[in-house]
Each structure stands twice: as structure tokens, then as C-alpha cells.
Amino acid sequence: MARAKRHVFTSESVTEGHPDKVADQISDAVLDAILAKDASARVACETMVTTGMAVVAGEISTKTYVHIPDIVRDTIAQIGYTDASYGFDSRTCAVLTSIDRQSPDIAQGVDSSKAKEQGAGDQGMMFGYATRETRERMPLPITLAHRIAERLAAVRKGKDGHSAIDWLRPDGKSQVSVEYEGDRPIAVKTVVVSTQHAETIGKRVLSQNTIRDTIIHEVIRPVLEKAGFDGRRVKFLINPTGRFVVGGPHGDAGLTGRKIIVDTYGGMARHGGGACSGKDPSKVDRSAAYAVRWVAKNIVEAKLATRCEVQVAYAIGVAQPVSIMVQTFGTGIVSDDRLERIVAEVFDLTPAGIIAALKLRRPIYRPTAAYGHFGRRPATVRVEGKKVDLFPWEETNKVRDLLSAAKL
């Protein structure tokens, strides 16, 4: 039997202090603050951050009021931009807003006296994906990249038992290249980490060797070892330019929705092009993207396929999807067209059906805005005294229904 062809696939992630992620987190923090008081609000919130400034714009229709400058500053402070020497500081940055109402032309297609007839907030197509190659049912490259980026932030802040590394700064990126044999990951080939840092420690210049050794031993190796890789044959590239002092919004302007591949499957699956952050669940860019991840993950968890990609598409103002496609890349135990019929039977993929099933009219979105919208562990937290479930689209609560519909 011929050995499966080998190839290397690469995915990247970014830290919460990356300028685009700062923008995403601000947009979702505004969304959460509004949904906490007005669950039926319509929110399309866009943020731009640059040196000393955050600009929040968009269309918001709501019965409540939130003080956007306070939300912006609190979010920036939580990320770690609390020093004016960074070129971007929660206390001194300017906050500009330009907010209008949702277009009535859109509203008339989305609003309905009957909830079940709620139309999609826009046209478009969304993709969901799942694979058995990790326990998160996510591709290994993006999973490792996220965990490295998360750990980079944790050691900067001194979380999870770490002593804070005070020369680290909030901005950073990770990138992981994984070798596959067919569909099976067999080795980590290269890990790239670029992290913003202070120029000096005390009176001495921070050396590249100190940065490299710290990042390899305190950030990368623990993540690889936990995933079952010893790292001895991995190539490490740490701050390849040799310097990363100027960073964050001072180094690059950040925009909401500019990290859609980081947010989803690291390029392993297709993407419809629409971002999630800053959008209430009437926007199918967000709610349907979550729904088809839920569908794909349940198919894989039911062992109906080893890999699964689901596409759904909508017309603005129309409740029912115009199409549903399932692709299992030859790994399905039933045909793809049969799976499509099963999905249509088991899942209500109308906007109202998705919102009801996943309980999406709650303030659950800020945690999605860094380190990926998918592959996260569902959790229950309290928001203003109320329990809310985070990442409900990661639940595998439709496995029995799928198996029953498939008559297996």
C-alpha cells in the first residue's frame, strides 16, 4: 500500500494586543454592553485604532444607552495598554464615535411580527469545519498557534502561576507549520513567534538571545509538550527581524474584522469573507458561521465523518437558507448528499432557529474576539449576576439526533 503524500500546512494566530484584535475586542465589548440591557438591539460596530486614538463607528438601533468611551478605555486597559510610552494608552487615547441607526431598508427585511419568519440580515455564504485530528475538533496548526499566542499573553501578565515577564509588551504573533501524511498530522516543523518587547531591562539593552531563550522555554515548548511534541526537531524563529519595540496601534493601525482566518480555521477550511466581531446575531455572518461549526462538529463527533465542511448561504430578508452543502472529503460513512438531507432535518438553520438554539441574544461575544471563535471549551460565567453560556456552538448535543436521522 502506497504511503500517503506528505505536505506542510501553516496557520497563524495573534495576541489580544495585536491592533486588529484590539479593534475586534472593542467592537464586541460594545456589543456585549448593549445586549446585556437590550437583547433585541441591532448592532454593527466597527473600530479603528491607531497611535493615541480609537474610532468607533457603525449602525446601532437600541432602546438602551451605553457610554462607549468608558467601554473602549476599559477594554484597552484589560488588554494591557496602560502606559503612554507604548504610543497607545487607555487613559490618554482619544475616543471618537460616529454612530447611526440601522438602515430601515435592512430592518424591514429582518424584522417580522412572527419570530420564525425573521429574515437574514444580509446575503452571503458561511463555512463551518471540524476534524478529528485534535480533541478540540480543530486543525492542529491553528490550535497550536492559538495556544502559543495565549501563553505569550499569560506570561506577560503573570497568569496561571507564571511570574510576569515585565519586558514583554501586548502585541505579538505566532505561526505554526505542521507536516501531514495525508490527513494525519505527524510533526511540527517550524514555529515563528514575534513579540513586542521593551528596549531595555534596567540600564542594559534587552538582548535577542534573552528574548529567544525566554520565548522558546517559557512559551513554545510547554505548549508543544502538552500537545505531545517534544520540540527537539522543530525550527524556531523568534522575532526574525531582530527588533520589535514599536508595536500595537502605535506600530500599525488596527481594524475590526481583519483577522477572519485567525478567527476561524487557520486557512484549513474555506471562508465566506464576512467577519464576526461587532455584529449582533441577526447578522448571519456571525450567527450562521457559529451554526455551521456546530453542525460540522456534531457530524464529526457522531463519527459520521473524520473531516467535515459545511456551507450555508442566505438572501437578505429571507429566512430559509438558499443552499446547504456538506463535504466530508471522502471520510463520511454516508454520502455527502444524504448528510445534507440529514442536516436539514436535524438543524433549523433559519436566523431565528439559530438564535434560539444557541441562545445568541446574550452578552457572550467579547471572549470570542481573541484566540479564535472556534475550538474553545464551553463555559458558564456570570454577567451582571446572570449565568450565561460561552461558546454554545461547541456543544455536541445533536449527536444522537444525527445518528437517529441517519438510522445508525
Reported for the largest beta sheet, the result is:
4 strands, mixed
Task: Enumerate the spans where pLDDT stays under 50 for 5 or more consecutive residues.
Answer: none
- Kindly state the percentage of residues in helix: 25-40%
Q: Please state the structural category.
A: alpha+beta
- What string gives the helices and strands in order? EHEEHEHEHEEEEHEHEHHEEHHEEH
Return Rg in Å: 22 Å
Description:
The two termini are 30 Å apart. A four-stranded mixed sheet has the order 1-6-7-10. Strands 4-3-2-11 form a four-stranded mixed sheet. The model has no long low-confidence stretch (mean pLDDT 93). It is built from eleven helices and 15 strands. It is of the alpha+beta class and 408 residues long. It is flat.
In short:
This protein has 408 residues and is an alpha+beta fold. Helix content is 31%, strand content 25%.
Give the helices and strands, then pairings:
Layout: E1 6-14, H1 19-35, E2 42-50, E3 53-61, H2 68-79, E4 94-100, H3 104-110, E5 124-131, H4 140-157, E6 168-181, E7 184-197, E8 200-201, E9 204-205, H5 208-226, E10 235-238, H6 248-251, E11 254-255, H7 260-263, H8 284-301, E12 307-314, E13 323-327, H9 336-346, H10 351-358, E14 379-383, E15 386-390, H11 399-405
Parallel strand pairs: 3-4, 7-10
Antiparallel strand pairs: 1-6, 2-3, 2-11, 5-12, 6-7, 8-9, 12-13, 14-15
